[in-house]
Amino acid sequence: MSNTETSAARPAGREQPFGKEGRAPAVEIDDVRKYFDGGVIKALNGLSLRVERGESVAVTGPSGCGKSTMLHLIAALDRPTSGIIRVGGVDLASQKDLPGYRRRHIGLVFQLHNLLPQLSAVQNIEVAMFGTGLSLRQRRDRARTLLADVDLADMEARPPTKLSGGERQRVAIARALANEPELLLADEPTGSLDERSVDLVLDLFARLRAERPGMTMIIVTHDVRVAGTADRIIWLRDGRVDYARRAAESA
Amino acid sequence: MSFAALILHNVTVRPVRLALTALAVAIGVLTVVSLGVVTHSLEVSDLALLKTGQADFTIAQKSVSDLLSSSIDASTLARIRAEPGIAGVTGVLIGTTRLNAANRQFLEIGIHPADLAAFGVSVVAGRPFAASATNEVMLGWRAAENLGLHVGDTIRIENETYRITGIYSTGQALGDTGAMLPLAWFQTYQRQPSQYTLLFVQITPGASVTAIQARIDRDFPQLVAIRTLQQFGRADRSLALILAADKGATVLAIIIGAIVVMSAMTMSFIERTREFGVLSAIGWTRRRVGVMIMSEALLIGLIGTAGGLALSLLAVLGVQELPSLAGVLQPVYTAGVFGRALYTAAAMVFLGGLAPATRAALSRPLEALRHE
Q1: N or C: which end of chain A has fewer CB within 10 A?
Q2: Nearest CB to A72 within list B3, B282, B366
Q3: At B298, is the secondary structure helix, strand, or coil?
Q4: Residues on chain B bordering chain A, Cβ-to-Cβ distance under 8 angstroms
Q5: Whole-prediction pTM value?
Q6: A105 assigned to some structural domain
Q7: Minimum-distance CB partner of B284 among A106, A108, A131
Q8: CA-CA distance, B153 to A197, in Å (whole number)?
């Protein structure tokens, strides 16, 4: 995979450094609770976690342990009931422009690719760059480069309905990378894929880690093979960290 | 892909929904434009009738169903003629008759030949009819041209045969497509002796038209003095009703169109809830989502407006061909009518699209992403 920062225009309007807090951790979660239904459901119940810049972390655990909720809170798609989440040293509670935060700093990959069905593969990537200050041509060139990076250069005109599950997920990953995020959040990215597609996505993640050492990755997964590619594996249980291990220790 | 191209793509990718929503807008525009053109044409025809006589203002009976039903007697004319500030009053009796299939509302004006000059009539060929004649007529030059008739020819109007003594011009299309007959004969033939339809009033130099108008309105409560098209409705209730119906239809078109647009767009946006969640998750602002939706609604509105305008042109052509209106309705297309069509469509789209756009823009991304 080529480094898209050198092969295509970089999105404008980026705050540097990430959070302006020097070498602050990529993500710090401090005693975060997220309750639903007035506290009946305690999705997160005192979660504390620290993820370093450039680190790749796999988050796993039984269903309902709070994995996806944690990702949603980091992506500012939801707010915690209590506790503090800092991304790049900045408390998300103080972020006023949450869409801008997601656009500039976060790349999101969903279990179900969530591509827009009416758009082609390349257009799905382009829409992620609206509001970045890139010109029409720059957006198109960058989207094409990203598609080439995920080995789908010849499928740019295809709508999601004409792509396989693995191809859709790779387009979704390319879209997540469109704005050069410091933090890539993936929620069960292989959960709905066949074996061969899982291999392709894992290969893609491995290349991303090699070619973008500064990018932090947090991947929620049930798949031990996916978890095995991470620097660290974190097990959640009942809304808090049960235990964590370096991947090498797990092996 | 530009933002505009995305909007165009989003609208055209669902052709059936686009067609149905645009059709609702088109029907609204069709209603407004067709009624507007017909109403304005009637206004212009009525104004032309008033302008036929070169008067400072016109007097008619108040609140008649149709201006041609106005009836003013000779004694009233004499009283008005005696009013201070009045230089002259020309009384005319106006009727319409079916001449042939192409002239179903042929205009007949009974006038005394001595009043022709004051009425603004120029005899362009032949001579005026005699005041006491019973079988003489003058044709407007347009009528003569349309009918292929000349001075010396005869013409049969209703059950009478008339010799054409002259061809006249009034400078007004409506007046020039009719005929003028001796007033006394026409009053007798119409069984309205000593009656006039309209009085065309000329005031003395330096007198105030407004003041005299107001005085006549006050002293002759059964009459109305008309100088402008806006005052026309005081005399002609039919036109007033048509104008009111036209305004009512516009409001109804906006309300019904907005409901249909809102319904169609709400359905569409419910289906696309997850899409809005995705856009928000990848960094689109609420404003951008809202602008996209309103732009889509606007584009649908523009397509509907274009379709509605095309349909309304066809509808007006169809109305013109109706046997009862053949040769009567001369459609007048004005910028105002098209402007009204545009603001009607804009109102439908704005009112119809605002609620779904606001709902989509304000929806929480996580809830939208979970939408099935």
Answers
A1: C
A2: B366
A3: helix
A4: 1-3, 6, 9-10, 13-14, 274-275, 278-286, 288, 364-366, 369
A5: 0.70
A6: yes
A7: A131
A8: 96
Contact assignment for B3 to A130 by CB distance below 8 Å: yes
Instruction: Tell me if chain B has a CB within 8 Å of the CB of A68.
Output: no
Q: Do A136 and B10 touch (CB under 8 A)?
A: no
Domain count along chain B: 2
Contact B278 A140 (CB under 8 A): no
pLDDT tens-digit profile of A149-196? Answer: 888 899 999 999 999 888 998 899 999 999 989 999 999 888 877 888
Tens-digit pLDDT profile for residues B268-306: 778 888 888 899 999 999 889 889 988 988 898 889 989
Task: Give the A:B interface size as CB pairs under 8 Å.
Answer: 67
Let me know if residue A103 belongs to a domain. Answer: yes
Interface test with B, best of A118, A125, A139, A140 (most B CBs within 10 A): A118
Q: Is B196 found in the same domain as B99?
A: yes
ipTM, two decimals, is 0.86
**Which CATH number goes with the domain that contains A208?**
3.40.50.300
**Whether pLDDT at B342 is above 50:** yes
Residue type, position B171, single letter: G
- Is the dihedral angle over the CA atoms A210, A212, A213, A218 positive or is it negative? negative
Closest alpha carbon within chain A to B371: A114
User: At CB < 8 A and 24+ separation, what contacts does B357-360 make?
Assistant: B357/B269, B357/B290, B357/B293, B357/B294, B357/B297, B358/B290, B359/B266, B359/B269, B360/B269, B360/B272, B360/B273, B360/B276, B360/B289, B360/B290, B360/B293
Q: Which domain holds residue A123?
A: 55-65+97-250
